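Can anyone check this?
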Amino acid sequence: MRISISGLLLASVLLISACSGPQEPAAPAVFSIPLEANSNGVLEARSSRVLVGSGEKTYTAQVALTPSWWVTGDGVKIVWFAGKSQTKRFFQISNESPGESARPDILKAPEEAVREVKVSFDGAPPMSVRPEATRAVFQPPPGAKAVTSVEIAFGPASSPVTYTWK
């Protein structure tokens, strides 16, 4: 009797596992900002090593960038400034070498060191803006559903680093 009960138990376990089918792995998260009017949010922080100068006067720092985004009637806005008191909210500077006292002017007002912003809608090739202020505004193409990538070039004009959200 023991053999038939354990056999029945084994058969039911096999039957249940066979009926559940193969488990598919979860799809990786895809970056997307839906083009819903009057919506906004903050992009996840991205960090990169910024290098200013050369030789003995080289300054380096880890700079994390956390811009915000807005979808309005004017278009999609990528914003990295909301007043001097808010600068640390958008730019977090750490691991400075040789130290904070040697921080170059470009990082004393980091909002002015954004060189270019690119945005892609629905996976299309990116549109580019060279900002003259502390935001970049993009007009979505007709029928666009979402922003699918954002790239921000930041740092010295001679060697900017690129922060990417995809």
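Reply from J.R.: I decoded it. Residues 2-19 form the longest helix (18 residues).
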